[in-house]
Amino acid sequence: MSKKFFKADQLLLLVVVLFAILGYSLFKIQVIEGDEYKEIAEKNYFRIIKKPAKRGIIYDRNMQPLTENIPSLSLYIDIKEIVDRDSVAEFVSKNLDMPKQEILDLIHKHRFYKFAPVLIKDNLDMATAIRFEERSDDYPSLLVRPEALRYYDMPSHFVGYVGKISASEYEQYKDEEYAKTDYIGKVGLERYYEKELKGKKGYDVIQVDATGAPLELMKNTSGKPPIPGKDIVLTLDKELQQKVTEILPKDTTAVAIVMNCKTGGIISMVSTPQYDPNNFVTGMNEEYWNQITSDKRNPLLNKACSAVYPPGSVFKLVVAAYALEKNLVEPYDILVDCKGGVEYGGRHFGCWKEHGEMNMLDAIRESCDSYFYKIAEIMNLNDFKNFIEDCNLIKDLPVGYTRSRKGFFPSSEWYDKHYGELGWTRGNLLNLSIGQGEVLLTPISIACFYAGIANNGTVKRPHFADYFLQEGEKEKKYYPSFHMPISQQTIDFLKQSLYEAVNAKGRTGGMARVKDIMVGGKTGSAENYYGDTHAWFTAIAPMNDPEIVVVVFVEQGGSGADIAAKAAGKILGYYFDKKPLLRY
Q1: CB atoms near residue 328 (< 10 Å)
Q2: What is the CATH number of the domain that holds 551?
Q3: Does residue 461 sit in the same domain as residue 547?
Q4: How many of the other CB atoms lie within 10 Å of CB of 574?
Q5: CB of 450 closer than 8 Å to CB of 543
Q6: Residues in CB range of 226: below 8 A, 6 or more apart
Q7: N or C: which end of the chain has fewer CB within 10 A?
Q8: Do strands 347-350 and 465-470 pair parallel, antiparallel, or not at all (unpaired)?
Q9: Rg (alpha carbons) of the chain, rounded to whole number
Q10: Final residue of a domain: which of 205, 234, 263?
C-alpha cells in the first residue's frame, strides 16, 4: 500500500508543479509581459496600408513644368478574391506577355497578403487595360487602378529621370519608407534631390480577420495623409533651352552653356545628341537601348560637365592672366613679330597666319599663336599649373546635381614619369600655351573661368536649383563663391581684349556680334588627334555690365570663328532681343 500511496503522492506533486508552471506562465503573459503580447495580438488584427506621396514637380524659372505626374493605369491582383489561380495566371500571362509561372509565383509569394491588392504590372497601355476591365466579372481578383507616372516633355541630361528601384537601392534605402515597387530618382536632379522630391508616405489602418482579410477602415487610429514632395524651381529657362537645342548642329556632338555670371545660375545647358528620358520610366525597348548605347557620340553623357577636351585658343586668356599676374610681360609691349610661327629647339611651331608685330592685346584679338609661344618660353610649368588649380580649372566642380569631371594639366613630374627627364622639352609648353598638347578641360570649367572674369574675379558656384516650393512657402537655395587669384587691373585688360576680339579690326569673333549689345568673346580651334578640329567660342555680354557667359563647343566643328561663334551669336541675340524676361 505504501508504494501505491508514494506513487500517488509523486503524481500529485507533479500535477501541482505543472499547474504552478502553467500559472506562472499565464501570469507572465498577462501581467508581466501583457503589454508586449497585447501589441503582438493587435498586430495580428490590424494592418497598415501605405499611401504614396505626390512627387514634387521640377519647374523652370518661369514656373513652366519640366516634369509632370501624369495619369497611368496599373494592374493589381486581390489575393482574397482569387477563385481559380491557374485560370487567373493563364489570363494574365496571355494579355501581358508574362510567363504563367511568374504569375503563379507572385500569387504564392503573397498568399497571406489579403489586406491589400498586389501590383502585377504598371503603366498599362489603354488597350490592355480595357481588356482586363471587360473581363472583370470573370476575374474579380484583377483590378485596374489609376496611378501617377513621371513624364518629361523635353530631353535634358541635368533633369535626369526616375526608374523602378533596384534590389541594391532597396537594400540601401528600405529604412526610408521605400517599397520594392517604388520609383526612385536615378540620375540628374531627380536623383540629387530625391529626398526633397519624394515627399512622405501616409497610411491608413485597417482591421483584418484571422485570415488577413480586411474588415473595416479604423476611423479612430493614428493614420495620416501623405505629405507631397517639394517642388523645385530652377534658374533654367525652358524656352531658351529649346531654342539653344535648335541652334546647335544636329549631326555631331555639341555643347552650349548659358550661365548668369553674377549668380552662377545656369539658364541653359544643352549637350547633344540627347535621349528621351521617358523610355527609362515606362520601360526601355531593346531597339531604343541598342540605338543609344551603340551611338559613338554617347547620348547618355552630359558632355558639358562629364567630358574633357583640348580647349584650344579659349585657353589663351588663362595664359594671359597668368603672364600678367607674374609680370612676365607688359600687355602693350611688342613681344613677337609673327611670321606664321616660331622656331624652337629645331622645330617649327606654326601660327594660323602671319600677324606681324604683336602685343598681348593684339594677340588675343587676332588669336596669334606665336605670341603665346613666346610666353611659354619664359613661364614656369609647375607654377602655371598651381595658378590653373587656384582658378579651379582642373578640379571636379560641384554643378548643381553632380560633380564635373576633373580636367588635366601636366606637371614636370608627370612629364618625367611618362617621357623620362630627357624625353620632353620646353617645346611641350609651347603646345600647352595655345590649349593643345595634354591640357584637357570641361566646358563648364571654362564657363566658370570666363564668368569669373566677367564678375571681376568672383566665381559663383554653378547651379540649377533656385528655390524649393511647398504649400506656397519658398525655401531659397544659397551657394558659395570663390575669388580667382587675378587682380582687377588684369581683369580690366582681359575684358578689353575680349571686346576687341569680337568688335575691333582684325577680330576673330565677329560672327558673335549682336546689334546694340556689347559682346566680348574668344574663339578656339583645338586640333583633334582623332579627326577634324574642335570648335570653341566663349562670350560675355554685355561687356559694360556683364550678365551672362555663353560657351559653345562643337566636336570636330572646324574653326571656332565660324560655327561656334555663329551659334553663340544666335543664342545671345535670342537672349537679349527676343527674351527680355530672361534678364535679371
Answers
A1: 16
A2: 3.40.710.10
A3: yes
A4: 19
A5: no
A6: 51, 52, 53, 54, 199, 200, 201, 202
A7: N
A8: unpaired
A9: 34
A10: 234
Pair (459, 539) in one structural domain: yes
292 in any annotated domain: no
- Tell me if 85 sits within 8 A of 104, measured CB to CB: yes
Residues 306 and 337 in one domain: yes
Residue that is written with C-alpha cell 482586363 in the block: 132
Give Cα separations from 100 to 22, 125, 144 (angstroms): 51, 20, 19
Residue 473 burial (C-beta neighbours within 10 Å; 0-12, 13-18, 19+)? exposed
Cβ–Cβ contacts within 10 Å for residue 583, how many? 11
Sign of the dihedral through C-alpha 291, 295, 297, 301: positive
Give the Cα separation of 160 and 443 in Å (integer).
19
CA distances from 268 to 25, 462, 571 (A): 72, 11, 10
Cα–Cα dist 254/537, whole Å: 12
Rounded CA-CA distance 160/127 in Å is 29
The CA distance from 305 to 433, in Å, is 23
The answer to whether residue 569 is domain-embedded is yes
Same domain, 423 and 451: yes
**Which residues are CB-contacts of 323 (< 8 A; sequence separation ≥ 6)?**
329, 360, 375, 379
Q: Provide the domain count of the chain.
A: 3
Cell of 44: 495580428
Type and span of the H or E element at 475: strand 473-476
Report the alpha-carbon distance of residue 444 to residue 171 in Å, rounded.
35
**Do residues 397 and 494 share a domain?**
yes
Within this chain, do residues 352 and 398 fall inside the same structural domain, yes or no?
yes
In terms of domains, do 38 and 87 share one? no
Its pTM stands at 0.85
253 and 229 share one domain: no
322 is a domain residue: yes
Q: Domain range spanning residue 422?
A: 238-284+300-582
214-272 pLDDT per residue, tens: 666 555 556 788 999 999 999 999 999 999 999 999 889 999 999 999 999 999 999 99
Q: What angle do CA 549, 553, 554 make, to 5 degrees?
A: 150
DSSP state of 419: H
pLDDT means over runs of 10, the chain (584 residues)? 55 60 56 50 63 94 95 87 89 90 89 77 87 87 87 93 91 85 93 96 75 59 84 97 95 95 98 94 86 92 96 98 98 97 94 96 97 97 98 93 95 96 92 97 98 98 97 93 98 98 89 92 90 94 97 87 92 82 42
Task: Give Cβ neighbours of residue 311 (< 8 Å, ≥ 6 apart).
Answer: 435, 439, 440, 441, 446, 524, 526, 536
